[in-house]
Amino acid sequence: MCRLMLLCFSSAALVACGGDASLPPCDSQIYCTGPILHQVQTAKLFDDDKYFVDMKLKAAPDVVLSAFQNLSNEMPNVTLPPAKLQEFLDVNFEKPGSEFEPWTPPDWHDKPKFLEGIADQNLRDWAEKIHKLWKSLGRKIRAGVKDHPELYSQIYLPNPFVVPGGRFREIYYWDSYWIINGLLLSEMTDTAHGMIQNFLYLVNRYGFIPNGGRVYYERRSQPPFLTLMVESYYQASKDKDFLREALPTLEREYGFWMENRSVAVTVDGAQHVLNRYHVEVGLPRPESYTDDLELAEGLSEARKEQLWMDLRAGAESGWDFSSRWYIDGDGHNNGTLKETRTSQILPTDLNALLCLNEKTLASFHRVLGDGDSAAAYDRAAARRQEAVEAVLWDEERGAWFDYNLLTHSKHFEFYQSNLAPLWAQCYSRPEMGEKAVQYLKTSGALQFPNGVPTSLRESGQQWDYPNAWPPLQHVLISGLSNLPSEDARQLAFDLAQRWIKTNWLAYTKYDAMFEKYDVNGDGKPGGGGEYEVQLGFGWTNGVALQLLDQYGASLTSGSQQVSSGVALPLVISVSLMLQ
Ligand SMILES: *[C@@H]1O[C@H](CO)[C@@H](O)[C@H](O)[C@H]1NC(C)=O
Ligand SMILES: *[C@@H]1O[C@H](CO)[C@@H](O)[C@H](O)[C@H]1NC(C)=O
Ligand SMILES: *[C@@H]1O[C@H](CO)[C@@H](O)[C@H](O)[C@H]1NC(C)=O
Ligand SMILES: *[C@@H]1O[C@H](CO)[C@@H](O)[C@H](O)[C@H]1NC(C)=O
């Protein structure tokens, strides 16, 4: 399965390996490439580049392309003025959002059981409100999208789903893992089932799961959580028939990661296969077009292409963007966004996640009575565990670190992902777990009252200090709570308490749940990066409900009084989330 990669690796031509970087982001000459995209985005008619590529066409793509050609012929060799472009859009496009119809999940009901386990009355009332938010985040794609997919950037999906919220109007891949876990607690089994079916449908259509439900996400994925979604659903339903039906598709997705996202690396004379994020599309992202163009200004064509591929790989990692992916000219984990080299890094969290996928696939085969296939996945997990230990584990520091393929060395900065193998239980010796807890305690990352920051570097990017993200809190807390020591489990509870307090304080101030929070803010939303902080918010709600379920008997809302009449320094209006 990795023969091709081995060849490429030994010939040191890793970047160009096995592919054609000139692939467009998708086949649409309106949403992914071409003069309309270029002119509309560079004219900056909208605050967010995602706005234009989410608009619906009023006529067939050929007709709209021809109309634009005619308009350009009237004014040859000039960029059309903004007013002309706006007029063109008014005639040929509809506002984003027209692909959905109102939909309230029919399996939503009052008072799911888990609420009863929450002792603190404030927290219980709040959990009920979070539970209610699923109703405003439900979306159903209109039949028109199925009949005329060419008029939409929206990818048709057979079942309704829950979206993250804000600018994220469509389904997202890794977000949905925490959303589904929340839905299962909310006893919305049918909605969860439908979302998983959508992802299975996407694997069958594309061979993998795109980042989100838009054509401009068609050539990149996101952290592979589908197998864990199925595991969550199976634990809630014990539905073996569903498992039997889903399993071949889960294996197909696993095959994509092993075939298209793996590299062989030799450490201490032994060869190991590990995975990375890697997208062979060397053009600006349509939904962040001008950011990508501006960032690449002044670079050679080859460097531009490489940067755009690595930005896409950064988006595929879910950590878009982060100092974690920087490699400067000296090969150090240092620099700026322009030095993003995601594809040249073997990430700890991706490999931990694939290790957990391998173990989970083995367990599915075992449940279904196929011992041979179970044994094959057990062997894959054992090989992965060995590779993670040989390449990513650092005995002296007592944690796992991303591996730099250019310098053949590890990156020793603190990132929350350095603890991911704890969560996946992807290590052989129990003392490695205890060492990792010591590493965390001395890292400096536990000193903040409002959660664990993504990193300790203030780069201005979203996936760095001072932002704390719900999925990362959940992965860390579950990792610690898996450990046998009382000390680690107490720490897990303390972190859950801090996180719940942060979410709760923000909710009391703003009446909203946010995609991320500031570790210093006592309920302040996070910031930085390419867009304003978004509210809604799928994974935040899912993680809060999970922690409230797991620790509901002991969590408290605290005695902190929130002053009334606080000013709301929010740029986004709540109505955005209802679009
Ligand atoms: C563009 O111009 C051609 C030639 O005049 C015409 O046949 C065609 O209908 C025009 N297209 C649109 C969409 O207006
Ligand atoms: C537009 O540019 C092309 C190529 O640069 C040139 O051949 C053509 O004459 C120009 N047209 C006008 C009207 O200036
Ligand atoms: C994966 O890589 C193979 C070549 O090794 C290629 O044929 C295939 O199209 C790739 N799959 C996807 C989904 O990109
Ligand atoms: C990163 O680069 C800056 C500026 O060149 C330099 O001062 C700093 O020492 C570098 N840090 C590391 C860890 O290499």
In short:
The chain has helices at residues 3-10, 35-42, 50-53, 61-74, 82-92, 121-137, 143-147, 175-185, 189-206, 226-237, 240-260, 289-295, 301-316, 348-367, 371-392, 420-424, 430-442, 470-481, 486-510, 538-551; strands at residues 56-57, 93-94, 100-101, 138-141, 161-162, 262-267, 270-275, 345-346, 393-394, 399-400, 403-404, 409-410, 467-468, 517-518. It is mainly alpha-helical and 579 residues long.
Overall description:
- The structure is a single chain.
- By secondary structure, this protein is mainly alpha-helical.
- The protein has one domain (102-278, 342-578): Glycosyltransferase, CATH 1.50.10.10.
- Helix content is 45%, strand content 7%.
- The protein contains 20 helices and 14 strands.
- It has helices spanning 3-10, 35-42, 50-53, 61-74, 82-92, 121-137, 143-147, 175-185, 189-206, 226-237, 240-260, 289-295, 301-316, 348-367, 371-392, 420-424, 430-442, 470-481, 486-510, 538-551; strands spanning 56-57, 93-94, 100-101, 138-141, 161-162, 262-267, 270-275, 345-346, 393-394, 399-400, 403-404, 409-410, 467-468, 517-518.
- A 3-stranded antiparallel sheet has the order 3-4-5. It has a 3-stranded antiparallel sheet with strand order 8-11-12.
- Strand 11 (403-404) and strand 12 form a beta hairpin.
- The longest helix is centred in the C-terminal third of the chain and has 25 residues, at 486-510.
- It is globular, with a radius of gyration of 23 Å.
- It starts with a helix and ends in a 28-residue tail after the last helix.
- The chain binds 2-acetamido-2-deoxy-beta-D-glucopyranose (NAG) (4 copies).
- Residues 4, 18, 207-208, 256, 259-260 line the site of one 2-acetamido-2-deoxy-beta-D-glucopyranose.
- It comes from Solea senegalensis.
- It catalyses: alpha,alpha-trehalose + H2O = alpha-D-glucose + beta-D-glucose.
- Pfam families: Trehalase (PF01204).
- One of its GO terms (molecular function) is alpha,alpha-trehalase activity.
